[in-house]
Amino acid sequence: MYGADYYPEHWDRSFWKKHVELMKVYGIEWVRIGEFMWSVVERSDGEFDFSLLDEAIELLSENGIKIILGTPTATPPAWLVSKYPEILPVDWNGRVRGFGSRRHYSPNSKAYLEYALRIVEQYASRYGDVIDVWQIDNEFGCHGTTYSFGNEDLVAFREWLKEKYGTLENLNRHWGTVFWSQTYKSWDEIVFPINTPTFENPHQMLDIYRFMSDSSIRFLKSQVEVIRKYSSKPVTHNFMVDFMDLDYRKMARYVDFVSWDNYIATEEYDPLRQSANHSLMRSLKHQPFLVIEQQPARVNWRQVNENYESEYLAMWTKQAYLNGAMGVMPFRFDQIRFGAEQYHAGLLDYYGRPTKRLEAYSKAKSQTPGVITPKPEVAIFFDYENEWIHRINHLNRNFKYWDAIVDIYKAVKKLGYNAEFVFNEDEVEGYDVLIVPYASYISEEFLEKIKKFEGPVYLTAMSSIKDKYNWLTERMPWHLIDEFGIEVVDFGGIKKEKGYLFSQCVNSLFWKDELEVFSAKVIGSFENGTPLATVKNNRYYVASVLDENGWKLLLSENLKPRVLGKGYELVNVERNGRELTVVLNTLPIENNVYIDGSLHVLKPFELSFVG
Amino acid sequence: MYGADYYPEHWDRSFWKKHVELMKVYGIEWVRIGEFMWSVVERSDGEFDFSLLDEAIELLSENGIKIILGTPTATPPAWLVSKYPEILPVDWNGRVRGFGSRRHYSPNSKAYLEYALRIVEQYASRYGDVIDVWQIDNEFGCHGTTYSFGNEDLVAFREWLKEKYGTLENLNRHWGTVFWSQTYKSWDEIVFPINTPTFENPHQMLDIYRFMSDSSIRFLKSQVEVIRKYSSKPVTHNFMVDFMDLDYRKMARYVDFVSWDNYIATEEYDPLRQSANHSLMRSLKHQPFLVIEQQPARVNWRQVNENYESEYLAMWTKQAYLNGAMGVMPFRFDQIRFGAEQYHAGLLDYYGRPTKRLEAYSKAKSQTPGVITPKPEVAIFFDYENEWIHRINHLNRNFKYWDAIVDIYKAVKKLGYNAEFVFNEDEVEGYDVLIVPYASYISEEFLEKIKKFEGPVYLTAMSSIKDKYNWLTERMPWHLIDEFGIEVVDFGGIKKEKGYLFSQCVNSLFWKDELEVFSAKVIGSFENGTPLATVKNNRYYVASVLDENGWKLLLSENLKPRVLGKGYELVNVERNGRELTVVLNTLPIENNVYIDGSLHVLKPFELSFVG
Amino acid sequence: MYGADYYPEHWDRSFWKKHVELMKVYGIEWVRIGEFMWSVVERSDGEFDFSLLDEAIELLSENGIKIILGTPTATPPAWLVSKYPEILPVDWNGRVRGFGSRRHYSPNSKAYLEYALRIVEQYASRYGDVIDVWQIDNEFGCHGTTYSFGNEDLVAFREWLKEKYGTLENLNRHWGTVFWSQTYKSWDEIVFPINTPTFENPHQMLDIYRFMSDSSIRFLKSQVEVIRKYSSKPVTHNFMVDFMDLDYRKMARYVDFVSWDNYIATEEYDPLRQSANHSLMRSLKHQPFLVIEQQPARVNWRQVNENYESEYLAMWTKQAYLNGAMGVMPFRFDQIRFGAEQYHAGLLDYYGRPTKRLEAYSKAKSQTPGVITPKPEVAIFFDYENEWIHRINHLNRNFKYWDAIVDIYKAVKKLGYNAEFVFNEDEVEGYDVLIVPYASYISEEFLEKIKKFEGPVYLTAMSSIKDKYNWLTERMPWHLIDEFGIEVVDFGGIKKEKGYLFSQCVNSLFWKDELEVFSAKVIGSFENGTPLATVKNNRYYVASVLDENGWKLLLSENLKPRVLGKGYELVNVERNGRELTVVLNTLPIENNVYIDGSLHVLKPFELSFVG
């Protein structure tokens, strides 16, 4: 699925033909359109006009270009917001978020839902199987819009709680409301803890994170149901990079395949961080995925929007392919001169001429045939709810769950192996190594899988210390004390301490357990001599957070280092019954890499299949 | 009064017996309970149920454990807030502070006051002399809750102003409202300066700080009055560390003894800063005080909540004793698994087992018999209103009054002497040295005491430059020009300048006076040659802010250095008619300290009585 | 016009005589009074009492002191705000800005306008030609008060838009509302984009900046019209340093001469930055201007308010003179003991004694006879709307238009030449060199002037890339591609890159063009080899932002360096038909400067006329 995102509504129809011709010249076979067109197709309440979209779809189809059509619910029009101001979301400070950009709606607003599902039905009934793939809305949760704290949200939250807890007694018990005199006598007394003098109830907070995620998922689901009435085409949604506000694992159940928007969101660009996101997206359904938006070069939303030379787009395309993508679609084909994204690069330039980026992309496309299925040797346990638990009332507010996991992912990759993420319900058989990092809450089901796993298991500090209501457990790691031969008897936050592991020096960060070691061997220690890492049989426990280097050292006992060099990404695949290693040079210069002892000289950004 | 804070309501009654047994084993003789129980004992409006509290008190009493009972007014229940939302406080931004944590009330809310005094009366009438000590509310002002800017606060503020000024003409004159056209024609025109385009009226601001402090004091007083109707037991309130929003000196008048909560609130832990707080608390009534909450190890409210090894709790207990405490109660006995403080350490662990902390505390208790009365050689003038004056519209917004005073306190301690704080109404006879630092406003009464004081007096920049309405005085230092032989003729903020004092190099910070020297000798200069310090007879003037080292140097002329070493705290006491020096090693390692020329080898955290 | 700002209303009448005597002793010939007196002269609605102002004016006039009278509209009284709370402005967060400081009004409030124009009419009709100059209001826009987002502002904004665009179709097209579905069907749907989830519409934003500036200008204009009914005296307004919220060029049309308030607003004091402001003020009407407020020494509104030795005031006075000022008036004559500015220095001290500052000022006055007309060799294009364009949705949010222009100004000055600012409507003939820096939008009129200009022209990155609706142009630099022989084909933000210019090393900052060079010569390159600077005939293009050193190097081809040394400011003037160079030593020490090869030894802060 190679193509690009396209906005016919931004142009006078006279430009369209030129655009489509260039698409054909450069091999753009797919376009995504329509996801911000609400005010174009519904000019005022009930006044529908699909002529523009009809014509665009017709022109594209005539020219053999396949279409992903986005439902336009991310941008309720001015006439709608003006009529029903209660549609607007309310932020963490209790302030209404205004009209004038995008995503200005709460998915719990009844008025909004009515109009949103009506326009979706208009789209679905008109274009049913005419188009090829449906995209629901656009980037749920972007700009913090997972969260809304208005009246309708509160009503919906109370309903959600009633369904979950049944009785107030039950809720009071699980929320521990006896603490600080917070006991509720009526459902109507429950409010969002906005601008509270001090720390919120951590059990309530976890339910708020769950409820907010569920609100978007419910909205996606209701759109899918409308579309299903009219269309047999696959449905997807564009997920985001480094994004943890929504439980994507849960949301992925309701789409036919996962798509995501591959942008560089960190201050420093790190190719393996993008790879971790690719793998997370692949792991959501353990199936190929689509990069439905690919950063082309500079964007417009950073403090400093640096450009990237055109060959980067080629490399990013190959990297997606390497990680199991079934296609890459740069955002966007046409370059816009106006609007909030006027500085965002496109594949054409402001004058409509093809850029070097378009050429590079077009060439990369020809080097990425079919879809690769990467073979991951390592399973890393991941859970969105754990990310929320780490946000709430924790011991070290500097710790970031996803960042710490990306460090582990990078360690595995640099050793020459591939990693995939596994969730509570996933099977873990077939992987060589299982890592369960910083997993505050682990379901009983998965605890059993850990015990049964035959290969080495790595467990860390902060794992299995919480129940599903966000209470700390009586003993830690809960249900795994015997398995690992240690008990956590005390703990505290740390900034950075030196430690020793296999006689090497490592950094321990963020957290420090005090262990009682029953039946394990100590293989690492903090500088003050207390245990940093232990092993019992092939069960490893790390009493802190390690950085990438620490993890490389720790894992190397079971993942023998295969690669020497830097600036590479490597994946093992099966192809025609043969195991192959595929390697990508992520550097813009020639790169010498030793794989399994043999030298490979890689050209700038080269993708190479190795023996 | 050795014991701990305890929360029976957080446990099924089946746990209580185990808790009480452990208390007895480890010598917990006192507990504080009940201060967050409002929704437990008043389940809904007027529906009282004291069974839990009754049983807990009975069980504790039966086992010989003495009880401090806290009134539960810090946490108005959900049913009350839901019924009277106007109870909620309003912050500096004009935003309501929500339900969902604690201290969510304004002490000026009529509805709140009615319900709060009703529940206090329920407590008082039921437990009158059954319990041993009363604690009023919990940590007045914590989380910025001294301040509330709602409608009822405004009404109360106008009443407070009417009482203070009598007429609007009087208020307009003292507030200088002619500046920027702020003259009031009606009391109802007076508002809180919320979100003003620029700087507020500094005279109004000082009255706001006073009014807000008075609001909490008035509320404390009205609770005490209710309790007095039913009980002859002493009343206290738990004051806070490094806390300047409330005039604790004024508040202390209404309690029988001062208690405070000894937590480490600064980024870096500094034992002598905690000592300064102990001394401030002792100085409020110049009587022994209670550490009613003692940080046990890690807390939960810092960015990074570091743990402390168990022996720290022993040392902190000894340090309190050294500074004149009559008891130390770690917060908290039981370790909670839920609630906003689930990560806060206790004396038990999550599984209910005694920790090493509990053992260390128990042992320290046996090393701290009776109550010491420290003998301070030095008096440091202190005034809460001056702290507020420094907050308002000053010349150098980086200057912090209390931090600068702690530096002086530490200098005195490190020289081997003890300091106490004196307030406007206090006598200063009996001290060897009097320091009057950064005291913008000094009462006429105290100005006279300065003049009469026979020993050396140290006065600094920013002292006696304001009247009690926060006007600058015509000449500076007001009423002390002749006494010190200098006049401040100009001044300005500085960042950090080098200076010279007794031919040594010192840092001058924050503020720089330009002096006219009449009849004093210059003993220090700024780098540009203007006078930094002068002396006339034994009257010293410092034209800037010195750090700890500068003060050590300056004071050493009158306080001959007695000690060599580091990591010690030293106090002189009288015991059985003999002068003794007591020294505490605040380091976790063996420590060599020379006192009056003799070597003392102190074990880690050792408390030692020296000849 | 030498004098000072004076506040008789802050003093009991008994002090006035002393003040006036001191004025006469020290040569204070002008005073500005009255601009914060609203509540003094209108004590409640319609209750006027001009006795104080009458008496003050009479006393000053009797003593031969000339008067600038300020209209008091910057401080609506409490009684007025209390009666019409809708007068209060609303900030960017949608929050009302409260009473209690100053500038608490929206110029779009109908109630406010009615009362403001009434008090102005009272002033004007009473003092018509009795006083000598009128100042309108005080520092329009100070403290961010250019911006108000209340209901009345919104109504006025919609009217402003109707007038500008005529039809909604027109507005929708120019605002590009098809982007993100923002199309408006009714004028009433248009709102201010307050607290939007993400980036606002950049075309709407530019109109908001224009509207807000116009609102203040319209208010100024309506005051001028009232005054003109009663007075023939000149009207001015006090503009501010480094201030870009208002289009001062547009506002300057409605005053008879420009005044400004010369304060140091940057973290580090830089005399040439103040000079740039002087020149900008002179350039607004290309006429002499008045420094109506001059920082005397310390102020009160900085984080750290450092003092300045008295001779600085003398130097600042000479610097204003050097740049074409017709007078300098320190703020303020009398030193206040109360109010929000109690720490701001005056020319008297708190006790009413003359300070060394007053002496220094008085002496400097005698060294600055008449009014100099500086002869600028260099024209720098400047435009307030471009400053707003740079604020909105740009590529590098760290770039600051005015700061980057000050760097160019300083480069010109340090080479030994003088610069003036030119605006779209200004003529450029007569200047030797024309610099057009960072000028996103350039009017067609000015584009023609660039082409016709015979001398060297310097154009930079980000110039002529926008149309007047803030759309990017199709090609860049728009209409100047042939003239400069290059086209910008791509660009991106940068932090800091090394570059080469005339074989020297330079820093390139913020922005990096990718150029296609048609018919120009490359004279500078980025480190990666792409062109940094080009020249075609005498048309220079710089593909990035240079710092002061880079500009000195680049300009030196056409502005041969005349001066060696540091800490000087130099201006060429014509005097009695002779060209003279005037040089000011801005350092408090003796300074050796070589001008045109000859050594000049300048005394501290000396102003010297050179051959």
TrEMBL record, chains A, B, C:
Gene3D superfamilies: 3.40.50.880, Glycosidases. It comes from the Bacteria. It catalyses: Hydrolysis of terminal non-reducing beta-D-galactose residues in beta-D-galactosides. It is an enzyme of class 3 (hydrolase). One of its GO terms (molecular function) is metal ion binding. One of its GO terms (biological process) is carbohydrate metabolic process. Residues 5-361 form the Glycoside hydrolase family 42 N-terminal domain. The active site is at 139 (proton donor), 293 (nucleophile). InterPro entries: Beta_galactosidase_Trimer, Class_I_gatase-like, GH, Glyco_hydro_42, Glyco_hydro_42_N. Keywords: Glycosidase, Hydrolase, Metal-binding, Zinc. Residues 377-561 form the Beta-galactosidase trimerisation domain. Belongs to the glycosyl hydrolase 42 family. This is Beta-galactosidase. It comes from Fervidobacterium pennivorans.
